[in-house]
Design brief:
With about 725 residues, the protein is mainly α. The protein is about 70% helix and about 5% strand. The N and C termini lie far apart (about 125 Å).
């Protein structure tokens, strides 16, 4: 009995607890009802505001009606019917608006009644639900268990709703940012238009002032001739005509005897009067024309004065609108100033923290074999590259941070860069080059001085990412896909110059002056808050096709880059799996490069000395105007030792370097000022000196292949 009683007590406690949760739900429903009442009050306030707006609009219409009535009084010369029709239309519009206002008031009252009915229904429903909850206490333990399961399901739904709400908040935040930007652009356009309108108003006012000055000149001219106004001048002209007619009438009535004595004198006087009359007629005609012009000017003056008053009112309204727009613009600018100028880079400072485990790079010959296997299975489709391609690619990494991969479409230029980054556990950012790129802003982004914000492009983010803690000891690649769709010497010029600098001075300038709170890497030594360092673990790899849509590379780009021409792929081979999945360490890769350069530096220097003393070098200088430069020697001392340490030979590395530096079109080959005998002599001299450079590698395959193609071309031309 005690145990049963205890079980019943526990069941009752649980039921009471459930009743408490139900009461909380009822309280929540009551709170929602109160919120509904609050919404109703807001709707009522909105209705009152609408009524106020309607009253204001009615007042504006009354003012407009008064203005139209005034215009009716002024328009007495032909526009009376038109003005009456316009007034009738406006009165009809006023009646329509009043009817619309009555409808809005009726709808609002109907909505208030409906909301009150819904609130009453909700309260009744709440009372019914409360009674139902009291009856539910009598249900058995199975019903309580089902209720518990239902609550668990609702908890899951609430969690899902919370996640959905967070997503909606993010979308709303993004939408607000976009709306702010659009509003700023619209305000700029409105300010520009307002300023243009203000300039036009000022020009109109100046023209009106000139018209008033012309009317004043007319009045002064009339006063100078002794006339009060233009009407007095016309009256004087009519009086002279009447006097002339009277004299002629008197002359007809006089007898011939009386006229004989005075005939001579009258004839002289008549001639004099006729001359004076002609002079006065000319003056009167001129004055008539001037009076007509002045009358038109007076009418125009009155119209201009009226227009001037309208324009002044319009100008005041525009000034007010401009002031309001400037205030709104200042508010938006103030809100924008609270944000970081480099949003994407600042986000990396927060997200990319803490180092990542890396693996040591093995010896370069072992690394070359492993990379060939890993690259083959790195992407979805298998990639089979010859061993020589892998060795030359590693040598290029040691020689230059800029690579150019040439070849026809489908030879795996883009795939090589992507697969290599994946094989070594690095990061590759693919940047499709556009044909319209003209400067570095297209590649890196630009700074908006008005918004105080830098719009970072993918390339700039990749440069910054390479210097962050998780990526600074890994290989980072920026893949410039179809690099020669536009001139690299234009959009890549600043980076090309920066890559030539020593590592301590390798910087790219982003802004003219330092911005507040710059990203962390822009605060380093020498960056001054406006520059960004180019890290050593970053390579720029550009792919290049050769067709009618592409641009040619300038010599300064070729001379600074590691150039490779990819042809047909190698035969398929068995791909082996490698155990280590950690990224290769960039620091250990650079140590392997340094070790290879120390080990094979002597052999490379001997080969360069033999080459410089040979007949081949003398022919280059005398017949082609080409000589050795310090850059080529530095590149050879970095490139060839790594190729040798990766399993290649001295001749293989020197052959590739000379073929891409000297035997490309425009240097030795592809020239019209070189005769066939000179090319054949150069080929012979190269074959002789090659035995001294690398006895194990009899012929420079790449160099001789390009020379043979040019020789055959000369032979075909005769």
């Amino acid at each position: 009995m005690k145990s049963q009683f205890a079980e019943r007590l526990a069941a009752l406690d649980e039921a009471l607890s459930d009743l408490g949760s139900k009461r909380e739900d009822l309280d929540r429903l009551l709170a929602e009802a109160k919120q509904t009442e609050t919404d109703l009050a807001e709707a009522r306030a909105d209705h009152e505001q609408k009524q106020t707006q309607l009253a204001e609009r009615e007042r504006q219409l009354n003012d407009r009606e008064k203005a139209i009535e005034l215009r009716e009084l002024d328009a007495r010369n032909g526009f009376l019917e038109q003005q009456r029709d316009a007034l009738k239309t406006l009165r009809d519009e006023i009646r329509r608006l009043e009817a619309e206002r009555d409808q809005v008031i009726a709808r609002t009252e109907q909505e208030e009644r409906e909301v009150r009915e819904r609130i009453d229904a909700m309260r009744a429903a709440q009372r019914d639900a409360q009674q139902a909850d009291k009856d539910a206490l009598a249900q058995d333990r199975q019903a309580l268990e089902e209720e518990r399961q239902k609550l668990a399901l609702e908890r899951k739904h609430l969690e899902q709703a919370r996640r959905n709400e967070e997503g909606i908040k993010r979308q709303i935040r993004q939408a607000l940012e976009d709306e702010h930007k659009r509003e700023i652009d619209e305000l700029k356009r409105e300010i520009y238009q307002a300023r243009r309108n203000a300039g036009a108003d000022a020009k109109t006012i100046q023209e009106q002032r000139q018209a008033l000055e012309a009317v004043a000149d007319l009045n002064r001219l009339l006063e100078h001739h002794g006339f009060a106004d233009a009407e007095a001048l016309l009256q004087r002209f009519d009086d002279l005509r009447s006097e002339n007619r009277q004299l002629r009438e008197d002359q007809r009535h006089r007898s011939d005897d009386d006229l004989e004595a005075e005939n001579e004198a009258l004839r002289e006087r008549c001639d004099d009067y006729e001359q004076r009359l002609e002079d006065q007629a000319r003056q009167i005609n001129a004055l008539k024309n001037e009076v007509g012009t002045r009358r038109v000017s007076v009418l125009e003056k009155q119209a201009l004065e009226q227009e001037k008053r309208v324009l002044e009112q319009h100008k005041r309204a525009l000034d007010s609108a401009v002031i309001e727009l400037e205030q709104r613009l200042d508010d938006l600018t103030t809100r924008q100033q609270g944000r970081s100028a480099f949003e994407a880079l600042a986000k990396m400072d927060k997200d990319l923290v803490g180092g990542t485990p890396v693996d040591e790079v093995p010896a370069l010959d072992v690394l070359a074999q492993e990379l060939r296997q890993r690259i083959a299975g790195a992407l979805d489709a298998p990639l089979y590259y010859p061993e020589q391609v892998i060795r030359l690619f590693l040598g290029g990494l040691a020689m230059s941070q800029l690579h150019i991969l040439q070849g026809i479409s489908g030879t795996g230029k883009t795939s090589l860069a992507l697969a290599f980054a994946k094989a070594v556990g690095g990061h590759c950012t693919e940047v499709p080059v556009q044909a319209g790129w003209r400067d570095r802003d297209d590649l890196l982004g630009h700074f908006n001085a008005f918004e105080r914000r830098f719009y970072e492009r993918e390339c700039l983010q990749a440069i910054y990412r390479a210097g962050t803690e998780p990526f600074k000891d890994r290989v980072n690649i920026v893949l410039l896909d179809e690099m020669n769709l536009s001139h690299p010497e234009q959009y890549f010029a600043e980076l090309l110059s920066a890559l030539e600098m020593p590592a301590a001075r390798r910087r790219v300038v982003l802004t003219e002056s330092a911005l507040p709170d710059p990203p962390l890497l822009m605060r380093a030594d020498g960056c001054d808050g406006r520059k960004l360092a180019l890290p050593d673990n970053l390579w720029f790899i550009g792919t290049a096709n050769e067709d009618e849509t592409t641009k040619g590379f300038a010599d300064k780009t070729f001379d600074r880059a590691h150039v490779m021409e990819l042809r047909a792929k190698d035969e398929p081979f068995k791909v082996e799996q490698h155990g280590s999945s950690l990224p290769y360490s960039f620091a250990s890769l650079r140590r392997q490069f340094d070790k290879a350069q120390e080990q094979h530096c002597g052999a490379v220097e001997e080969g360069l000395r033999a080459l410089q003393k040979s007949q081949f070098t003398r022919l280059l200088k005398t017949e082609f105007g080409l000589g050795w430069g310090n850059r080529l020697e530095r590149q050879a001392l970095r490139f060839v030792p790594v190729v040798m340490a990766a399993g290649g030979s001295l001749g293989e590395g020197m052959d590739h370097l000379l073929a891409t530096r000297l035997f490309r079109a425009g240097k030795v080959t592809g020239r019209f000022d070189v005769v066939l005998d000179t090319l054949q002599n150069l080929e012979t001299a190269l074959s002789r000196v090659w035995k001294e450079i690398d006895p194990s590698n009899d012929v420079p395959v790449a160099c001789l292949e390009r020379l043979d193609l040019d020789i055959r071309r000369k032979e075909q031309q005769g």
